[in-house]
User: What shape does this take?
Amino acid sequence: MYQKLLQMPKHEKGAEQEGDDSSNPDKPEGTAEEQKGEPKETANGEGSGRNYNNLTDADRSEMKVDEIFALYLWWISKKVNAGFYQTVVKYGILFRECLNEIGWQKKYESEDNEGSTSGQKQPPEGRGEFCIENNAEHAPEICNEFVTVFMENKKNQVDISKPDQIDLTINLCHWLFENQFTCSKLSMIS
Assistant: This one.
């Protein structure tokens, strides 16, 4: 599954990489334009039907982390070169893994626990993947743990430099805030 995510979007490949297949009768018309355009519903009709250029507050609150991260990856694919895009996708997968590991805890800690009489600061067990069930409101809350603990534990497996990790984290959190997927604004202490 992750290999599919690491493939570069077709609109990032130049004609010299793909070859000119404009004379190919098997190629459906409009394919190149659709790939350069806005995110679309899937071919089998599944999808949110959202207008990603004009999201409503209801759309934003209904969108789960996975959909939001897909939108971020689509957006950033238009801003960076193909090589760095692969780094961003790897980063996104790792950030998602970290959010699935500690997202429930962060959400639980930040919510008002007035009804809790146990005095414990532990979320209930048996929850599904955080990124499938929640929006991105709590994503910025894992940034420190992501860079200092999670990525440190993966340093022998991941080839994303510490400065890139920090820059990508800042960029993602800023994008989430600017696009109103979170109320949390990341602040840097120097």
Remarks:
- Residues 1-36, 41-45, 113-120 have pLDDT under 50 and may be disordered.
